[in-house]
Design goal:
Blueprint: H1 2-17, H2 39-47, E1 55-61, E2 63-64, E3 76-77, H3 82-101, E4 107-115, H4 123-136, E5 138-149, H5 156-165, E6 169-175, H6 179-185, H7 191-203, E7 208-215, H8 222-233, E8 239-244, H9 266-282, E9 286-288, E10 292-294, H10 299-306, E11 310-312, E12 315-317, E13 323-327, E14 332-335, E15 338-342, H11 346-356, E16 360-365, H12 368-383, E17 385-387, H13 388-395, H14 406-414, E18 418-420, E19 424-427, H15 435-439
Parallel strand pairs: 1-4, 1-13, 2-3, 4-5, 5-6, 6-7, 7-8
Antiparallel strand pairs: 8-10, 9-10, 11-12, 14-15, 15-16, 17-19, 18-19
Length: about 450
């Protein structure tokens, strides 16, 4: 029986695990944005917002002191501080411009600082930007203000500035604690350094801590991955995310510095992901969606239990705001009418903001059918099930509109990935690692698009 199960599992991995599919942090996904959506359209979408529309803000800081070779984010190395300070002034201009075009600003319930490394901003510039945000927007008293941190360049002046600014959650990129793996990805950060910075954050009252770990890294073994989880858990994080390394050198040229021969194969990646998941579950963490874990009592565990978990560009989230405004180079905004993405090149972004206050590169308006497909995909990604018939009835659409890929769903049901009665679709335990593949069946753009994506597992 064990042998048969192993063969079946291996067959599923070979059939579905290496497929390249989106991560579905939006729908339609970013490769399908186009230049036909410009600043004038964005202005009209901002002007249509009203006081009843809840807001979230995302601020992108596209700088790091060093480049991590595994990184897939929009960032650049800035060893001198001058360019970072200049960027902060331009970002202030964008904040002012965007805020001035909103019809009736709603209440901001979430702010997320991402990068790059947001702590590349010094304490003065970070505090100035937070002051502009508070001046131009109304923040809820219990708003969550979160920031991503590179512990290798995070001093006590920043800890103090974050506490004074109301930072309530910090996310630390740990990836793996194995020295050989850290060397191979060009991110060396000893456990003692991480523990020291965690203690500093907690001493300042920033207790909600998220840790990011990865599998599928060069020279990484299953034992390395499990030890890294155990070491991370000794610091008692609120949440842990376990991401599979996406080797996409055609998108991020610096990933060519990582030898493809050093990367674990599909079965080794699966074994690492399973072992890390089992370690976290054994420690009492609640699995959230595909790849997040939360301590019982954490707000993400609570929304998972309540069935109200959401997904956006930061991954799984408790944020249910109707509008997310992206600020900074490459950032993406999600509004009721559609998506907008800023220019990714930092120099061109700054030039455009100085000239017009906006730096729109592309976007996409969403149709009623897009919204329906997005809801079904989010249901699957967050809850592992969706009532397709009810979702279609609520949208006033025929369920047959969505089922261009019904044959694929039927095949997945035969393979044991899902149960499907024509109305309710539910991912099975065996199918959970392949939920992105199932979700892709409802992606009308993927079937005709030419975008390249990361593998499913």
């Amino acid at each position: 029986m064990m042998c048969t199960a192993d063969i079946t599992e291996r067959a599923l991995l070979q059939k579905y695990g290496t497929r390249n599919v989106p991560r579905y942090t939006s729908y339609p996904t970013a490769p399908h944005f186009h230049e036909g959506v410009d600043a004038e359209i964005y202005k009209s979408w901002l002007g249509a917002l009203d006081a009843d529309t809840s807001l979230s803000l995302y601020l992108h800081v596209p700088f790091c002191k060093e480049l991590c070779w595994y990184c897939g984010c929009a960032t650049q190395v800035a060893r001198k501080y001058g360019p970072v300070s200049e960027y902060a002034r331009v970002l202030e201009r964008e904040i002012e411009t965007v805020a001035s075009h909103i019809g009736q600003p709603g209440t901001v319930r979430h702010i997320h600082w991402g990068g790059g490394s947001p702590n590349r901003l010094n304490a003065h510039d970070f505090s100035s930007l937070m002051a502009v945000l508070r001046n131009r927007f109304t923040l809820a008293k219990d708003a969550e203000i979160a920031i991503e941190i590179d512990v290798r360049s995070f001093d006590d002046s920043l800890v103090e500035a974050y506490a004074l600014a109301g930072i309530s959650r910090a996310s630390l990129g740990l990836q793996d604690f194995t020295p050989a793996v850290q060397t191979a990805i060009h991110r060396e950060q000893p456990f003692d350094l991480v523990a020291d910075r965690v203690a500093a954050l907690r001493a300042a009252g920033i207790d909600a801590l998220n840790f990011d770990l990865m599998y599928g890294l060069p020279y990484q073994s299953t034992g390395d991955a499990v030890r890294s989880v155990e070491m991370a858990l000794s610091l008692e994080p609120s949440r842990v995310a376990v991401f599979g390394y996406a080797h996409v050198p055609w998108m991020r040229k610096h990933q060519n510095l990582i030898s493809a021969e050093a990367l674990p194969g599909a079965e080794a990646r699966r074994d690492q992901a399973v072992a890390m998941t089992e370690t976290l579950l054994s420690a009492g963490y609640v699995q959230v969606g595909l790849d997040h874990f939360a301590r019982p009592g954490d707000s993400m565990a609570e929304v998972t239990e309540a069935g109200t978990l959401k997904r956006n560009f930061q991954g799984y989230t408790t944020d249910d705001a109707a509008t997310l405004l992206g600020l900074g180079a490459s950032s993406i905004s999600s509004l009721p009418n559609g998506y907008i993405q800023n220019i990714a090149n930092t120099r061109l972004y700054e030039e455009s903001i100085r000239k017009t206050g906006f730096a729109i590169a592309r976007g996409i308006a969403v149709s009623a059918e897009d919204r329906l497909r997005r809801q079904i995909i989010e249901d699957l990604m967050c809850a592992g099930r969706t009532d397709v018939a009810t979702r279609c009835a609520e949208a006033g659409m025929d369920v047959r509109t969505l089922l261009g890929n019904q044959t694929a769903l039927e095949e997945m049901q035969v393979d044991g990935l899902l149960s499907w009665d024509g109305a309710v679709l539910e991912i099975t335990t065996d199918g959970r690692p392949y939920v992105r593949v199932v979700a892709a069946c409802f992606d009308a753009y993927l079937q005709t698009g030419k975008a390249r994506h990361s593998q499913a597992v």
